[in-house]
User: Fold this.
Amino acid sequence: MKKILLLTILSFSLLGCLDKDSVNIPVLGSGTDSERKVLIEEFTGVRCVNCPDGSAEIQNLIALHGDNLIAISIHSGFFSKPYDENLYDFRTTDGDDIATLLGEPQSFPSAVVNRKLFAGENERQISKQSWAGYIQNELAEVPKFNISMVSDFDEADRSLKVKVTVVPLENVNEDLNLSVLFTEDDIEDYQLTPAGKISDYKQKHVFRRVLTNDVGGVSIGSSFSKGQSVEKEFSIVVAGEWKADNCHIVSFVHKNGVDLDVLQAEQVKMK
Assistant:
């Protein structure tokens, strides 16, 4: 009982120290409990009639795996060109660069799991029927890293600062990069569906931009000792039309070379 009371008092004391004009949120990713997280990057577009089916499958997989599956929805290519009725244009230069890096989809729905070229596949882009199996296999891997993030968002000027901490769980000798991305959920706009074009479709996990200098990420080194952390800080100004309550920060450690495999990923809410 004394311990519970002490923690309660400490929590209120910390809340009282926050600047009322900013939201300073230490958000530690659940990667600190050594759970494996898997990244799925879906390629989609408002003119893609089959893409809502792919997005629904990703939501089903998230319902199954919870926070251990992290999704990014990238609008790139012909199908991403907005209709005249669309309120938003989800296309980005960064998104196009990611499509170039990972390979353009040959059919839809299509996604890349942990940026891997799996044995037996000709490309990283894989069809919806294969997502569940590859995700399950990747989740079974023992994680080599933990990732945690601290987010500091100032509502007054919409500046965002993010500190990412990467902790090796074993000794690793490999050239690795860290990528940090920004996504937004539940954006309502026109979308083509098998039932026709609808106006109130909710886009999920919409890729907005990278926080690193480019889509290839930033180097975090090539030799890692167990428990010796690496820290990187990033900052951006969040666009006014992006709803802060619906935004997430996604970070992942990945190989830097011919192989792009993601070794660990994490996601936290921006605020």
